[in-house]
Amino acid sequence: MARIPLEDNFNDVINKAQRGLKVSDEDLATRAEVSAADLAAVKAGTPIDAVIRRVARHLRLNPDALEALAHKRWYPALKSFKRGFAAFNTPFEDMTVNSYLVWDSRDRVAAAFDTGASCQAMLDVIAAEGLRLNYVFITHTHDDHIADLPKLVQETKAQVWASELEPVDFPGARTFKEDAHFHLGELAVKTLFTPGHSPGQTTFFVTGLSWPLAVVGDSLFASSMGGSPTRFQDQYRNNIDKIFTLPRDTAIAPGHGPLTTLAEEKKHNPFYAR
Fold first, then answer.
1. pLDDT for res 227
2. pLDDT in tens, 179-200
3. In the chain, how long is the greatest CA-to-CA distance?
4. DSSP per position, 234-256
5. Is residue 125 packed enough to be buried (19+ CB in 10 Å), middle (13-18) or exposed (0-12)?
6. 221 pLDDT band (50/70/90 cuts)?
7. Distance CA 50, CA 63 (A)
8. Domains in the chain, start-ordered, CATH in brackets?
9. How many whole angstroms separate alpha carbon 93 and alpha carbon 21?
10. b vs e for 32-49, b when ≥16 Cβ sit within 10 Å of the residue's Cβ?
11. The pTM is what?
């Protein structure tokens, strides 16, 4: 998969934190002791370091990580999987969305995570690798993540699974509880509920590949997190409790933007770096 831009720029992170914490521009300028004009310039994308650092402290963001993001000094170092993993990035309206495929190299059984806007590239890999798709796991039911679900199921006859907190409206779809376990040969998939961005947002923790893998949907992005105007604190806390407690070498596969790692996010994500 070609290099994918970060999902959020530094000003997107500021705006997302502001919305989540319900801090107005006026309040933020007052607290951070910056002018309204300078704050407006930063929010429009102008990297004024002194303003960025002052604002960061009042939005619970890491100033160093936010400044590095503003100057494009960081992009995640990607882990490579020797086998059994493929990532797909497809255009949907004015953005792109990711979907993923994992498989057991011996038994040739596979699971998909979301479909993105198109599942054709995924179907091509399934055919080329001689795989049998057993499961389609849904991180959450927003349209961009399940746009091609009918075609994927029609072509593969795979079972569709989604959280009991956010069932997918699809014939024959099943629901799982938290801490459900699925197996694909030597691979194991565990469900972790990480709601906030959506009511049933789920992270899938996969072991048995070259690296532990967390397919996080829109819970977490490289250098950012999923937004929610009403459940921002839930998303923030669930990420800390469920994702940031995974092994440090875990690869993070988000719903948008590039793959990253837990170790990278602990150092470079403005919301979580300490």
1. 85
2. 999 999 999 999 999 999 999 9
3. 62
4. HHHHHIIIIITTS-TT-EEEESS
5. middle
6. very high
7. 10
8. 10-70 (1.10.260.40), 85-268 (3.60.15.10)
9. 28
10. bebeeebbebbbeeebee
11. 0.97
